[in-house]
C-alpha cells in the first residue's frame, strides 16, 4: 500500500480534480493579502507557484522564488483548525413563545474537506486537537463529523523557516503518520515532480484513480534527502527535557514579569497556534427578543474576560496571562492530554507583533535555574572545605 | 486555691506550663462570673485583668456614634480574653460583654506584670502563649476585612 | 451541548439575595440522578448560562434543587424566575465529594457563604447513613445572620442526627447570640479525630485556603481535606479551556479536589 509513485504538475492537478469529483471541498495554500493562507483550491493554478516566505520573530514576508515550486514556503498564519474547529459557529437557536421557549439544536456539519499541503507539524497539531475534542470524556460532535469526513494530503517540507523547531518537538519535518496521501516536491533544472505515497485505504484508492507513475530509486532517495536537509535547517530549537517540572517550579520566576513588559496581550499567538482550542460562547438575541442564539467563538487566555468570575478576572496582569499560555502549552498540557501542546511550528514567534520567542523564554528560565543550582552546590562545596 | 489550679491546668492556654509558674499564676487568680448582658470591661478603662473563659460567650463590641453596637469578635469557652493588661498604656480598646452566663478565671494583670518583670523566663513563657492568640486574632481580622462573603463588584 | 427544557416547580426564598429553585424536567428523564458536589449549567432565555451546584438530596428526588445567589446578570435572571417558567439545563457535570471514602471516619464540613449549597447534598448523604460515620461537624461562616442559608434545618441536623453545628458571622449586632469571627476559629470548638477524619470545604477561595491550613495545623493530612474550586466556566465538558486551574480542568477533573493536589497552585497568585 505504501509503494510510492510519481506524478508531475498535471498529475497533481488530476489529484485535485479527483478529490473534487469525489465530493471533497479541497482546501490548500493560496496567496492572499501578502501571505500564504488556506482557502478553496480548484486547480494547481490556485497554488502559490514560485513563492516563498521569510520569517523571523515578528516578521513575515512573501518573496519570489527563482523556480516554480508549488510548496516552496513554510507556514502562513492559518492553520487547519479554522476548518475543523471554526473561529465561530452557532451551537443552537431558541425561539420564544409566550412564557416558554424551545431550543433547536444545530446539525453537525457534514462537509467533506480535503486538506492539501498539510505539513507534518500540522498533522501532529490535529492529533492533539483530536485528544481535546474526541478522545476525552465528552465528544464535540461537530468536530468529530468534520474530522471523520476529512482527507489529509500532506507534503514533506522542502525547507524550514527561521522560526521552525519541529525537530525539537519531534513533530517533523518528515510526515510519518495521520495522513491519507503524502507528497514530496522534487524540483531541479530539468523536471518538476512529486513523489506520492498513500497512508490509508482512502489515500490508496484515490491514488489509483490519479494514476501515478512508478517511482524510481533515484526519486525515492532524492525525496529522502530533501526532508533530511530540511531537518538541518531549523531556525529555532527548544530544550524540552523536564520542561513541565521546570515551568511548574518557576511559576513566580522574574522572567514572566520581564516578558510582560513586551507582551501586548494581543492574543495573536493563540489565534495562529494550531493547537490552541479555547473558545467562549455568546448568547445573542434579536431586536424583538423572541429569538436567541448561542455562538461558540475562538477565545484566548490573553483576554481579560477569559478568567473572569463573579467579582472580576482571576488573571489581571499580562504576566499571569502569558504564564498561563506558556505553562499550559508546554507543561499542564502534558498532564491533561499526555502530550505537549506545542508542535514547533513557530507561528506564535512569527506572528507576535513584538517577536516574543517561547523557545528563548524557556531557555531564559532554564539558564537562570541552572545558575542558582550551581551557586548552591558551590556554597555547599565551600562548607565541606571549611 | 486547689480548685483554681486544677481549672487552670486543664485550660488549653496553660497546657504544659511548668508547675512553679502554674502556682505563681494561681496566686494571681480568682473565680469570677458574669450574667448575660453584663459588661466585663469597657473601652478606655484600665486593663488590669486577664480572663480565662471557662464557660459562656463574650462579645467584643465597638459602638460607632449614633449606631447600635457592632460585635467584631466573640470569645468562647477554652479561650482567653484580653492582652491590654500586658503592655502600656494598660487600657481596654473595646467593650467586652457577656452574651450569656459566663464563668471565668480572672488573673490580676498588675500582679502578673510585676512577676514577669521579676522573672523574664515567666514573661517569655507567657508571651509565647499570648502571641499566637494575638496573631490569630489579627489574621481573623484581616480575613473579615477582606469581606470574603460580600458581593464582589 | 444543548440544554434540556426544565420547569420551575417551586421557589424557596432562602435569604435577601438567595433563592432555591426546584427544577423539574419537562420531558420525564430516566432519573435526574447526581452525585453530591456536581453542578448543572442553567440557561435563561436570551440572557446566558451559568454553572450552579446542586443543593438538594441526591437520593429519591425527581428534580434538581439549585440555590442561587443573585449577584450577576444570569443569576439575577434565574433568581427572578416565576413558578412554571422554563430554563435550559445541561448536566450534571463534575466529580463528587468523598462520601464513600469518609465512611467510618469523622467528617468536618466547612462552608462559607453560598458554599453551604454544594455541601448540603453531601451532608444529606452522610445523614442518610448516619451510623456509617463518626462525629459529623458543620462549621459555617457567613457575612451576617441575614445571609445564613438553610438555618431552619440546623436544629434537625443537631437534634436528630447529632451533628455538631457551629456558625460564625463576620459582624453582628446584639440580636445575634452566636459567634462572631472567621469560620476557622470554630475548628477547635468541635471534636473530631484528626487522624481519622475527612474534611470537605466550600466557600470563597481565601476562606478555603485558610481553613485547609488550620485543619492541617489541627492534625489532618492534606489528602484528607477536600475543597471545590471556582473558575470561569463556559462549556462544562473540557472543550472551552476557561476553567483551567494549573493542570486541572475544574469542570471535568473537579470541582472537588484534595488539598494536596492543588496546594502548589492555590497559593500562587493569578493562576
Structure description:
The complex is a heterotrimer of chains A (386), B (153) and C (271). Chain A is α+β, with helices and mostly antiparallel strands. Chain A has two domains: 5-232, no CATH class; 243-374, no CATH class. Chain A contains 13 helices and 16 strands. Chain A has helices at 9-21, 81-84, 120-133, 141-149, 166-169, 201-210, 217-232, 243-248, 254-262, 268-272, 318-337, 347-350, 358-385; strands spanning 5-8, 25-32, 35-40, 51-56, 59-64, 88-97, 100-105, 113-118, 151-155, 181-187, 192-198, 213-214, 279-285, 291-298, 308-309, 312-313. The longest helix of chain A has 28 residues, at 358-385. Chain A is globular, with a radius of gyration of 23 Å. Chain B has 153 residues and is of the alpha+beta class. Chain B has a single domain (2-146), classed as Sandwich (Jelly Rolls). The longest helix of chain B is centred in the C-terminal third of the chain and has 27 residues, at 120-146. Helices cover 19% and strands 31% of the residues of chain C. Chain C has helices at residues 73-79, 116-128, 154-159, 205-217, 250-253, 259-266; strands spanning 4-15, 18-25, 39-44, 48-53, 64-69, 86-93, 106-112, 136-142, 164-169, 179-180, 197-202, 225-228, 244-245, 248-249, 256-258. The chains are: A alpha+beta (386), B alpha+beta (153), C alpha/beta (271). At the A-C interface, strand 6, strand 7, strand 13, strand 14 and strand 15 of A face strand 14 of C.
